[in-house]
Amino acid sequence: MEKQQKALVAIMFMALVVIIGLWGIDFSQGYIMVSELTNYPQSHIGNEVNTMGNIKNGTLQIAPGMINFLLVDAEDHISEIQVEYTGDLPASFAEGQSISLSGTMVSAQKIEAHQIVMGCPSKYAE
What we know:
The protein is of the alpha+beta class. Helices cover 21% and strands 35% of the residues. A five-stranded mixed β-barrel has the order 1-3-4-6-5. The radius of gyration is 21 Å and the shape is elongated.
């Protein structure tokens, strides 16, 4: 019986170590494509979303304390959503650039972003 008790204590200890080790890890959603956000907005409105795409040419408006632009889907290049961002302007931020953002989807056509990360530029320029 003592062997079974030791095995049970060892298993409980390992489970406790795993739980503590995974405590702070964020297992939330990954990136949602712009097309999914615009095709199924009701499941995302009011929620935090992470998405990526390209800043549509001709839509970037920079004003003091506010940046507005349309984000175009990185895959279908058709779906787009309005983005309003009030943070600091990232380095190399320009139209046509690839970005990832986190924010709240406030309506079927708009995201209020609180974080923008610029995509990595290709080191193989034409």
